[in-house]
Every structure is written in C-alpha cells, then in structure tokens.
Request: fold
Amino acid sequence: MGNGEVANKYQEGKNDDQLRSKLISQIKNVIKEEERENIKLAIAHGSKLYLIRAVLARGTPLASIRAFKVMQKLDENGEVIATIPDGSEILKSSFKGEIVILAACSRVESIEETFKDEADVEELFYTEVDAHELEIPFQEMEIKKEKQHSEIEHLIRKVETILQKRKSPASSTDILDKLKTREIKIRARDLDKLFILVGELVLIRNKLFMASRGQDSHVMRDALTALDQTTNKLYSKILEMRLIPVKQIFNLSSKFVQEFSEKLGKQVDLVIDDRDEVTLDRSIVEELTEPLISIIRNALDHGIELPEERRAAGKPSVGTLKLSTKREKELAIITVEDDGRGIDADLIRKTAIKKGLLPQSTVEKLSDQEALQLVCLPGFSTKKLTSLTGEMDMGLNAIKQRVEAIGGYLKIESKKGEGTRITLSVPVTKAIVSVITVLLVGIKGEVYAIPSSMVHSIVKFKESLVKHVEGGRVIVYRGKIIPVYSLSSLLGLPYNHENHLVILQKGVGLCGLSVSSILGFEDVAVRSEKILPGKAWILGATILSNEKVALIIDPWALLVRKH
Reply:
C-alpha cells in the first residue's frame, strides 16, 4: 500500500483529501506541549510524520487489546506520538475499534510492516503530513542539518528552560501541570536494557557477599545490606512498570461475552473474580490474548447449552461463565469455568484409542481426570473448532503449546452435565532478564539450579524409604504417596549417592527429586531466551557468586522428556 492508500473503502462519498484534512484537524487539537517537543526531536533526527487511521473489523474480540498491540508494533518501528482516542479511552468498553495515530517513522515501509499481518484491521489509511499542517512552525523547531545539532543540544535547552522556570515563582498552572504528569511513555526495549543492568548488579552483589564471608567489617556488611535492599527495590520497580492488571483484560472481555452469547441465542452471566488483583507482564498478556479468546468462545459455543436444553436438564436457563485469577508464588493462575454440558471422559478415551494416539491398555488405566488431558494431544482434533457463528478457534493442542512456550501449563477439569474448568498457570513476568531465587543442588560435581517457586520442601533421603509400585518408585510423604525420581537418572548420568530429597510442587501435584547435595538458595539473574532450542527442560543459564556457570532446569519438563 502506498501513501494515502487504503486496504478497503474507508468512507462512502469522501475522497482522500477530505479524509486527510479531517484527520489533521482532529489530531492537531489533541497534541500536547510535550508531544510537540517529541515531534521536533523526531524530525531533527530525520524521521517523517504520518497520520494513520485504522478501523478494526466489527465484533473483533478484545478490540482494545488488539489496538494496543498494533500501537506497540508501530512503536517498535518508529514512535507513536499521539492517538485518538487516547489510551484511557481505548481501554473503555465503549471503544468502537477506530483509532487515529500520529507517528514518526524514518521510512514509510515501517507502517506497511506494522499492518501487513493484522487480519483484524478492516480499513487502513495513512498519509505523510508536514509539521506546518500541525501548526508547528518550521522556524520554531530550529532544525539544523549539521552533525552538531544532536540530542545533547536539545537536552541542554530543556535544562536551561527548567532552570529559568525555577527562578520565577510557580504559577497555579505549573503546579497543575506537574500534578497531571504522573505517567511517561517508556519503550519496552529500554526497560529490557534496564533489566540487563539490574542483572549485572545482582551478580556484583553476590560476588561482594561471597568476598565478605569470614570478614568482621561491620562497614562492609552494612554497605552490602544496603546494596541488597536497593537492588531488590530497583528490580521490583522496573518489573512493576511492565505489569498490567489481569482484571483489565477480563473487563474488556465482558462486551465480547455479551455480544457473542447473543449471536448464539444464549443467556450468560459473566462473573469476574480478581480478589488478588493479579498483574501480568505485557508480553505474557499478548501471548495469552488469542488462547483466552478461544477458550471463552469455546465455553460459550460448545459448553453452555441453549436455554431450552438447560431447562430440560434441570438447570437455570441462564448459564454462568466465570473468569478468575489468583497468585501462587511466581505464577498467575487464570481460570475459565462454565456450568455447561461438560466433557465425556469415556468418549475421550474411545476417540484416543480410535485415532491410535495411545495403546488401549494405557488409555483404560487412566482416571477420568487424566483422560481429559488427552484432548490436548496432537492429532486428537484434526482441525480447528468452528463455532456456530463461523469463527475459527485455536485447538487445545495449539493453546497448550502457546502456554508452555511462555513457561506455563494448562489443566482441564470437567464433569459431564455439570461444566468445564480450564486453568492456565503462567509466569507473572517474561522480562529479558529475570532475577529469581533458585535452589542450588549438586550432582557428580556439577551444580544445577531449580527455581524456588517449584520447591515445596527439602527432606533427608534414604533409599530404604522407597517402595516399588508397578515399576515406579514412591515414598510416603506427610501421609501422601508421591513418586520419586533421581536427578542423575533424569539427566542420563551414572547413579550417584543421593541423600537429599527435593519435594517439587506443580499445582496440587507433588513429586520427589533425589540429589547428591544441597548447596543452598541464591538470587540469580537469568536471560529469558532459550539457550538450547528444543531443550524445554533448560530454562536458562546463570553465573553464580563463585563465578561458576549453572544451568537452570525445569524438573517437570525433564520428567515429560524422560517418560
């Protein structure tokens, strides 16, 4: 698409010039003083200004989230300066899906790259605009093409202006402006750089703690304690800046639930429970948006029955869809629950056997709860679910893969005739560098790190306590029978004397992991990128306070790999 081109017909009876003039008139009335400064700086750095009008398709699920996703992509390719409506208005349920954006980009292709894969954008118009058209005089910008006109000079002028203001009495307008300016826009990549720096701080702190052991200097210990507290506060604050409330997503989905259930001819009450006020990293929210939409749509379409079916089954004609979330250590637990027809576990077993996904002898031994998880196997459903309204959903296998890709897991619970509950357990953050507490364990002279969020407890271990049941090893732990695995065996290493047992927890499930030695807990910095593609059990690597490198492992993923 070229300058001023549209994806579809944008408005009946109006030509490009009329729409262009209208958009310019609208945007120049909302540009604030600080945004004028951003425009000047962007032009000084060689960027051009573009006005963009994008209209999302009618009925787009979670339109606000889609709009923010588009703006974020555009911000990565350039800079979003102003929008109509503004961010707070976009978040409201009254948002209609039309947005006007003033952006600064170094090349027009940035806009095309932003929108080329956005299937939800039904109409698109963009055009280059001049600063004069926005009533920002050219001479006011004092743009110099010489190399010495840099961002440093711009900052010097701003400092001089601030100093000049300090000399004069503060007016009521100045005070009000300060009160209004509570938020600033920060690029995600700048936050990532801060996370990297915090990770380096953590490493330095750990080295200092190691060096100070055995010394009696109160001054050094006090300084280290202060550094420890400051580092933790800095990390927490930067992490907080990336988080958004999950309830915000739930509130946005209420309009979608209402409209979609009406299309299906169903009556549905939406219940939202966010008593813990859980927050999630923006990148996690982006990854979860499509899976959540599919789960909600599937609950409305295939789960909750029509009013007459519900009455015949002795249920209220109005169905209930409950969206809830809570925090468990470093995980956010998101649940979508309906009181619909439920899933038939016996039918799942028959389908799995018929499709040859598992041997019949294995399937028949599965409990109803275990059988329900089979719906997530590749090949169980050969195509995406198509709703009565013609919408295409992600299959459960695709949803499970998406959730596991961000370090989470999916669980399905259902009772025929009573309803279904799908639970997504996902990490709260996915920062490029995370500071986490790990348990350090030793095997054959090597050190491995296990995230403390997976550790339930640590106990002394004796092989004599192990019982063998159906080819597996189990112990009795606090009145419960739990399976036991050897870490050296899971890693493919020769058996080593293991006299410690790490009790691992995942949801309500427990298992024991025997290790040679326990080296203690330590805060470490870990990059989120997978260091070995295809090795899901390796969460990353970190440098310890003794300067040794340790792999951070996911024992649960190791179990899946081994079995």
In short: The first strand starts at residue 48 and ends at 56. The domain at 433-562 is CATH 2.40.50.180 (OB fold (Dihydrolipoamide Acetyltransferase, E2P)). Residues 1-14, 138-160, 162-184, 382-392 have pLDDT under 50 and may be disordered.
